Amino acid sequence: MANKRSVRNRSPRLFDRPGIWFNHHLQSIMATLGRLMDMPLPTGMTIAVIGISLSLPAALYVMTENLRTMAGGWDQSAAVSLFLKLETSDKDAEKVAARLRTWPEISRVHLITRDQALAEFRALGGFEEALEQLKSNPLPVVLAIYPNHFNASPEHLERLRTRLLKLPESDFARMDMLWLKRFQAILDLVQSASMLLGGLLGLGVLLIVGNTIRLEILNRRIEIEIMELVGATHAFIRRPFLYTGAWYGLLGGLTAWLLVSIAVLLLQRPVSRLASLYRSEFDLSGLGLSATGAILGGSILLGLIGSWIAVNRHLESSELS
What we know:
This protein is 72% helix and 7% strand. Strands 2-3-1-4 form a 4-stranded antiparallel β-sheet. The protein has 11 helices and 4 strands, in the order αααβαβααβαβαααα.
């Protein structure tokens, strides 16, 4: 009777079970990490392969995001440059600009006089001797026209350009934003390609983790058979391998983040030097918090899925045999 009472007292209470469950998982997490540290060379090679695979789409993402940031600054340039006829004086050009400011599709008009255009041309350098030969200013008055947000699409710009050409003072008009729209379309294509590449390399990571876990299962086959003989559940057998796959994913994701961050640091100085040649400043941005979280979360998920597939295949084959 006393033995039964002592066994009953040793059984876990309902409120103790979450703590026991947490302790079991914590022990499994630390045990799997210890096994990986006991095999530094194969573990390091697997993590390096995963990290390099994940760093490629991450680097493409960083590149496209930096190019989008750079293109955002270019958005401030005029959408349409209207060149007036040479006989149009600055006073008449100001009247044209005032008339254009009343158009509902135009948000701003900037007047560049003939003298201002010539001064900017002189500032470029390299044409001093040619400019000295000029007897008069050959440059026309230019109106830099900025449409509002609702009329910034290529179709609206083309209609605006056609309407501007009908003005009696206009000579020709040039669309400055069309190339930017094309550039952004190219960036969208690159981003889609990087997502496709990320999916393919993610499948590769899945296969790498699955094959690594399969080899780990083969090395511990006798241990697994003994656990099955003593009545261990599939969840108990599967647990350490799942955590091993999660560790591979987490460490591979951290390696990818480290590689991309090092690449950004190495490229920052050449990019700054190139931007200074164009009298501009530009700082490369690396992976933000959301992108870092996505890489780490995705890599852990890939590790878990790969290990789950490998363990389940082994457990199913052992049941059939």
